[in-house]
Amino acid sequence: QVQLVESGGGLVQAGASLRLSCAVSGVTSRSYVMAWFRQAPRKEREFLATINYNDGSTHYRDSVKDRFTISRDDLRNTIYLQMNNLKPEDTAVYYCAADASSGRILLGFANYWGQGTQVTVSS
């Protein structure tokens, strides 16, 4: 059974950095795609970044690609989202997700989701 557990959220000031972690267990296929999403209050969930478990290739939402970096640590079975120069509009619950299809991920769907971690950026 796939389990995803996020951590690393918190309250920071604008301009600060945070690194979110997603501990992954139960993923046995290296064909999985891992992703980060976020959902702000009264807004729809939005895709941020993906990383292919097999070859490490990445893909980003245009609006965050200059500030956010997705990465993985195979030894720790952990996916990270490094977020720099945070802005108040980055305030949201951030979710880790996994699916065998990058196409589904980009459409906002995934078979597995974490519980989310709150990021709040004050001005």
Short description:
It contains 1 helix and 11 strands; from the N terminus they run βββββββββαββ. It has one helix at residues 102-106; strands spanning 3-7, 10-13, 18-25, 33-39, 46-52, 58-60, 68-73, 78-83, 92-99, 112-113, 117-122.
Q: Could you characterize the architecture of this molecule?
A:
The protein has 123 residues and is mainly β. Helices cover 4% and strands 50% of the residues. The chain is built from one helix and eleven strands. It has one helix at 102-106, and strands spanning 3-7, 10-13, 18-25, 33-39, 46-52, 58-60, 68-73, 78-83, 92-99, 112-113, 117-122. Strands 2, 4, 5, 6, 9, 10 and 11 form a seven-stranded mixed beta sheet that branches. A hairpin with a 6-residue loop joins strand 4 and strand 5. The model has no long low-confidence stretch (mean pLDDT 94).
> What overall geometry do the principal axes of the alpha carbons give?
globular
Count of DSSP H/I helices: 1
Largest sheet: 7 strands, mixed
| Helix percentage range | under 10%
How many strands appear in the DSSP assignment?
A: 11
Distance between the termini: 40 Å
Taking all residues together, what is the mean pLDDT? 94
The topology string of helices and strands comes to EEEEEEEEEHEE
Integer-rounded radius of gyration: 13 Å
Q: Report the structural category.
A: mainly beta
Which stretches are low in confidence, meaning pLDDT under 50 for 5 or more residues running? none
Q: In percent, how much strand structure appears in the residues? A: over 45%
